[in-house]
Amino acid sequence: xxxxxxxxxxxxxxxxxxxxxxxxxxxxxxxxxxxxLTLQLYHLGERKKAIENELASLRTQNDVxxxxxxxxxxxxxxxxxxxxxxxxxxxxxxxxxxxLTIPPHPERENAxxxxxxxSGTR
Amino acid sequence: MNxxxxxxxxLLCAAFVALFSVFSFRLIYLQVIKHDAYAELAAExxxxxxxxxxxRGTIFDxxxxxxxxxxxxxxxxxxxxxxxxxxxxxxxxxxxxxIPADALAEKLNSERRYIVIKRxxxxxxxxxxxxxxxANNLRGIYFEHDGSRIYPNGSxxxxxxxxxxFEHRGIQGVEASMDEYLRGQDGYRYVERDRTGQEIVxxxxxxxxxxxxxxxxxxxxxxxxxxxxxxxxxxxKEYSPQKATIILMRxxxxxxxxxxxxxxxxxxxxxxxKPEAMKNRAITDMMEPGSTFKIVAAAAALNEHxxxxxxxxxxxxxxxxxxxxxxxxxRAFGYLSVRDILIKSSNIGAAKLALGVGEEKxxxxxxxxxxxxxxxxxxxxxxxxxIRPPRLWSKISITRIPMGHEIGVTPLQMTVAMATIAxxxxxxxxxxxxxxxxxDGRVISSLSPVVLRQVISAETxxxxxxxxxxxxxxxxTAAAAAVPGFTxxxxxxxxxxxxxxxxxxxxxxxxxxxGYLPADHPEFVGLVVLDDxxxxxxxxxxxxxxAGPIFSRVAEKxxxxxxxxxxxxxxxxxxxQPAQKNIPAERGRPPRRAAPVERVALTNASxx
Lengths: 122, 608
Fold this sequence. Notes:
The structure holds two protein chains of two kinds.
Chain A: H1 2-8, H2 14-72, H3 75-84
Chain B: H1 3-33, H2 35-46, E1 47-52, E2 59-60, E3 66-79, H3 86-97, H4 101-108, E4 114-122, H5 123-135, E5 141-150, H6 158-161, H7 173-177, H8 179-183, E6 187-192, E7 207-208, E8 215-218, H9 222-239, E9 243-249, E10 256-262, H10 281-284, H11 294-303, E11 312-314, E12 319-322, E13 325-328, E14 335-337, H12 338-344, H13 347-357, H14 359-368, H15 397-400, H16 411-422, E15 426-428, E16 433-437, E17 443-446, E18 451-454, H17 458-471, E19 489-498, E20 504-517, E21 524-531, H18 543-561, H19 568-571, E22 574-575, E23 600-601
Helix pairs in contact in B: 3-4, 3-5, 9-18, 11-13, 11-14, 11-17, 12-17
């Protein structure tokens, strides 16, 4: 009796069980990893987009600043400031200029000599 | 089992099989047969080809000062399929963007999917609008990064720089001629959006980065341009001419150092500018050059060895009847040397020089100097001018063309012709673009001087240059064009203004002066042209008296800026007594005398 009931009982195949457990665990892990990595992909995508936006914003700020610098240092702006008295310019007199260039050759004799026109200067 | 039950079970099974077969066939139809069509539809719904705009290249002057660049702006777009509350969107946008609600609603209800609502919205306004849309949970409105063209110097150099249209295409000036380089290439990116319209970054498709436009460097020096602009403004104030042009050019390289025209306009307010203010008259308008053209006749005569600088020509004592028509000089000249024909600006003398050369040969020299064809400068809209071939000349044309009548030339052509004299007879193509570079400094294109031809020999050019020095002397017609410390070679011109319907406008003149400095080793050639200047007395409306002093002021300041060393011996001069100056007449009128001209001259000014 006792021997027959032992015979009827299903024997647990430890090796097979372990194999199934490993396979299930592997599949579960793979599934979870897939979900995790997919989420990570979305998350990193969001971060990438945020960084891109930040970079674009910094570029924009840089461009706007460049425009402002160009506008403030333009000839027209400096001229306006000069007129308004914010800037002062003093012409350098000729005797304060030291030139290191070789002077041009003197005029030939018999050449027509030009006049100078003082009233020409404004 | 009861046969009835069995039959019923079989029928139920058959029904299930039939039902699921239908489902299966439907699935196969949708997933396999119609796969491409639905995939395309889905992609169209969620996918979007996003344009990544390339920045237009910056324009710089010769010293890397910015002349034109971009300010970031945004374009507001609507995706009609994604608007979740059209009425609220219309109300918000019409308030924020100052667009009439009706017009906006009509726009949004059009059949198009993507609708441009507003262009060139500033970054700050776009940011505020974006926040409000988000706060009200309104969808379907997108912002695209874009750039708007800004010109920091306003109206300065406006005709040269030009401008773009709203699609960033160059319309005028360097913006148009160098558009291919400046424009760059837009990029794109295929993106997918979720139901809220946000991009799903992992699903990004194919992407191509934009290539920003190249940077264009001009030959113009803003400091010199500033000098020219100030002087042309002063001239406009003083003489109220209809039009005015000043050009500075480096003769050895053909580089345009400055170019200004009046009337002008503010590049940042171009929509308000009048069309006539937008014309670059230095290249698009032609004029009768008047006596400045005598350099061509003299150059041809000397180069053909028909005359020497000291050859004398009888100038008919101021009145010559040729071909049944009278030709006048402003003074009664007897015998004049070729040199003095230029110095005194004798019409009869110049006519006889051209006659000596002959019609065909003279025409050949006119063309060799570059008249009658575009100079090739990198600016759009340049005209050829009008030089008729000898077969179309009248009997007296050979006597009128040498004094700059019966022809049409542009101010730039006249400058180039004088540069040819200054440059030892070599005709150089004028250039306004120095180089094209990438943003990282890589040189894409660097333009070198182009010598078109040797028009006259170096010796002839030197001889003409010597004669032209005399023009800016106490004996010449342009004493007022002199610059302290420098020798100047130049020529005045006064031509009666050509009427639109033919003939000449009475009492209206185009006065000009073209010259170079220093005469020995020219650093720049300058041209001043005033069309219909208003002087206090009509007899003062002459090239030497109006354009000459303007040239003098421009040249003096330019010489100082370029650090040209003045000659002390030229500086040491004594004032001449205010003299009754003979008015140089290039108008074919009897001689007159004008008001005294204040000037100083060297004590030992030679007379020959």
